[in-house]
């Protein structure tokens, strides 16, 4: 398969950035650390043999038993050479230094907002890190494994005395 | 009292809110537009009004129950979404469908592509003031929905595919109806084009509007007609053929400037090519089983007849219903060509009957993120034209 050529190039040049590789199910997955992530992705985009010019997808997976429980998977694709490599990177939820790829790929902008919304991982250097699918005042991050499927606050949990709880809200349309 | 100057507004920095309930946003998209006079300075799409957390729901369903979630994401091209999901689960299990099933899958996926493009064409033309087009498009779409209903029992959400094949075999009625459709449809496409393609008003509204260059399109991860309109010949069906697409002969139309008109031409040509694929597949459907139960009895549902006449089949059906299938531990990614672009499914299995994680790579999500880039410097009225040409579907963007 063509992608294995890309993998061999990455292994030759960027061996120090790679923790492990996995080629099961005909997909190529490369695991790296958050310190080396930007360097590795930049190399993959700029090297003339590889030319990964499209960040096709970016998403998170939650493994609650691990210490670094969020695994972010980058789906990188080269439109010129038809290579597809998944770069994986693990992180804690409250990691302060997790790098953003918005300076390298434009499409990372919305995808990283989605990961922040659904998993709570904050990307350092993102220009506009806000919730994208859930409302801004949403509580919690739904795709974490410890977030229940159906969550409704019980009457005890509701704080009726909180300021503005039952007041009519001003949406600026008066 | 009010002075005259109180009624003057700041025209250079005027913010208009469009949506979420607005007919030309094709759903519940909200766009905040900053205007300078009538020129768009910045257009920020706000999504999430239809968010139902389907990726979370899939983690609490068995593999076949989760299939019904996928066609509710992109509800005008349901069969296409099912196909991507089932291919991903099959890759996880190491199952391959029979040739007959693959051909029927292709027929359904391509019919769905035509019907989805018809919805797009109708609504896009209405947005720009051509009301007649809408009625014609929905007339033919009805025929396609009838065909899908004859075979699957549902019009928009078929959920007809199973791991290793199909839920049922095809029958005479389906073949006859599809043949009729193939016969009449080429003439209809010419009718649509006669109304729009060389129309001067259509030209004015679409030519050189919403241009996005090839490099920008790749950077924003646009796929489908939006990317092909910019001139890059990227079609998953050709580049990484799945589900017997390598057997068929078809072209991938591309544009060159990447404006609204190019995307329109690409989609019109795609309908013709899809019809070509359908007719090739329909005439060459191989004989044989529609479910690959004999080769992969562990993962494939037994055909009804086998289940009711043999003991093993009965046990297998019972286990299938009670426990579901349990793919081995692992991860698999499959991407297919949806009417809107590249639809990817990344499935992670932990060896249980429920998916550990189902990630959908939604094509419209990326496409709409480039809205700001496309609309900058155009008139507000062109925003509607550009939004229509991206062909967004909010059910899929928000999931």
Instruction: Tell me the strand order in the biggest sheet of chain A.
Output: 1-2-5-4-3
Stretches with pLDDT under 50, minimum 5 residues of chain A: none
Structural class assignment of chain A: alpha+beta
Q: Count helical runs of chain B.
A: 17
Described by the principal axes of the CA atoms, the overall outline of chain A is: elongated
- E-strand count of chain B: 8
Q: How do the helices and strands follow one another from N- to C-terminus of chain B?
A: EEEHHHHHEEHHHHHHHHEEEHHHH
Figure out the total of helices of chain A: 3
Q: On the 0-100 scale, what is the average pLDDT of chain B? A: 88
Quaternary organisation: heterodimer
Largest inter-chain contact set: A-B, 34 and 39 residues
Q: The biggest beta sheet of chain B, please?
A: 3 strands, antiparallel
Low-pLDDT residue intervals, each spanning 5 or more residues of chain B: none
**Beta-strand content bin of chain B:** 5-15%
SSE sequence of chain A, one letter per element: HEEHEEEH
Shape of chain B: globular
**Largest β sheet strand count, sense and barrel closure of chain A:** 5 strands, mixed
Q: How many beta-strand runs of chain A?
A: 5
Strand order in the largest sheet of chain B: 1-2-3
Fold and architecture overview:
The complex is a heterodimer of chains A (174) and B (399). With 174 residues, chain A is α+β, with helices and mostly antiparallel strands. Chain A has 3 helices and 5 strands. Chain A has a 5-stranded mixed sheet with strand order 1-2-5-4-3. The model of chain A has no long low-confidence stretch (mean pLDDT 84). Chain B has 399 residues and is α+β, with helices and mostly antiparallel strands. Chain B has helices at 54-58, 63-73, 78-93, 99-127, 131-152, 172-196, 200-206, 214-219, 225-229, 236-239, 260-283, 304-309, 311-323, 363-369, 371-375, 380-390, 394-398; strands spanning 14-18, 30-36, 39-46, 161-162, 165-166, 330-338, 341-349, 355-361. In chain B, the strands form 3 sheets. A 3-stranded antiparallel sheet of chain B has the order 1-2-3. The interface between A and B is large, with 34 and 39 residues.
């Amino acid at each position: 398969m063509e992608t294995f050529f890309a993998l061999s190039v990455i292994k030759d040049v960027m061996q120090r950035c790679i923790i492990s590789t996995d080629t099961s199910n005909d997909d190529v997955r490369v695991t790296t650390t958050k310190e080396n992530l930007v360097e590795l992705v930049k190399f993959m985009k700029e090297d003339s043999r590889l030319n990964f010019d499209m960040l096709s997808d970016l998403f998170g997976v939650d493994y609650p038993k691990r210490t670094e429980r969020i695994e972010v998977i980058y789906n990188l694709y080269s439109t010129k050479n038809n290579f597809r490599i998944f770069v994986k990177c693990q992180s804690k939820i409250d990691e302060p230094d997790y790098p953003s790829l918005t300076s390298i790929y434009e499409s990372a902008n919305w995808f990283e907002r989605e990961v922040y919304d659904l998993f709570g991982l904050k990307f350092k250097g993102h220009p506009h890190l806000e919730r994208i699918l859930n409302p801004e005042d949403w509580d919690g991050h739904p795709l974490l494994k410890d977030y229940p499927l159906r969550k409704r606050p019980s009457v005890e949990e509701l704080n009726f005395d909180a300021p503005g709880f039952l007041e009519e809200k001003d949406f600026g349309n008066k | 009292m009010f002075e005259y100057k109180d009624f003057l507004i700041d025209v250079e920095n005027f913010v208009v809110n469009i949506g979420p309930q607005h007919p030309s946003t094709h759903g519940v998209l909200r766009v905040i537009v900053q205007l300078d006079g009538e020129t768009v300075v910045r257009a920020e799409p706000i999504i999430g009004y239809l968010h139902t957390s389907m990726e979370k729901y899939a983690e609490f369903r068995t593999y076949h129950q989760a299939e019904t979630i996928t066609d509710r994401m992109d509800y005008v091209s349901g069969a296409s979404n099912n196909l991507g999901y089932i291919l991903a689960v099959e890759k996880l299990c190491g199952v391959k469908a029979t040739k007959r099933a693959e051909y029927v899958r292709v027929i359904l996926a391509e019919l769905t592509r035509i019907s989805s493009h018809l919805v797009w064409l109708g609504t896009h033309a209405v947005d720009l003031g051509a009301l007649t087009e809408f009625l014609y498009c929905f007339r033919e779409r009805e025929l396609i929905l009838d065909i899908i209903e004859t075979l699957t029992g549902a019009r928009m959400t078929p959920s007809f595919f199973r791991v290793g094949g199909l839920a049922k075999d095809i029958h005479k009625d389906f073949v006859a109806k599809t043949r009729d459709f193939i016969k009449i449809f080429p003439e209809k496409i010419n009718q649509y084009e006669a109304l729009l393609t060389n129309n001067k008003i259509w030209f004015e509204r679409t030519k050189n509007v919403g241009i996005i260059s090839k490099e920008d399109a790749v950077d924003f991860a646009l796929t489908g007609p939006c990317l092909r309109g910019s001139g890059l010949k990227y079609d998953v069906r050709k580049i990484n053929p799945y589900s017997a697409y390598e057997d068929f002969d078809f072209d991938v139309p591309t544009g060159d400037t990447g404006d609204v008109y190019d995307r329109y031409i690409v989609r019109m040509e795609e309908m013709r090519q899809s019809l070509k694929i359908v007719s090739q597949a329909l005439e060459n459907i191989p004989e044989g089983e529609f479910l690959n139960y004999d080769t992969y009895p562990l993962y494939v549902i037994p055909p009804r007849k086998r289940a009711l006449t043999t003991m093993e089949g009965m046990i297998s059906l019972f286990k299938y219903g009670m426990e579901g299938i349990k793919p081995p531990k692992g991860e698999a990614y499959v991407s297919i060509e949806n009417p809107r672009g590249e639809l990817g499914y990344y499935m992670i299995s932990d060896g249980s009957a429920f998916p550990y994680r189902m990630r959908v790579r939604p094509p419209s999500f990326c496409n709409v993120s480039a809205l700001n880039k496309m609309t900058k410097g155009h008139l507000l009225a062109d925003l509607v034209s550009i939004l229509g040409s991206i062909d967004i579907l909010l059910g899929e963007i928000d999931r």
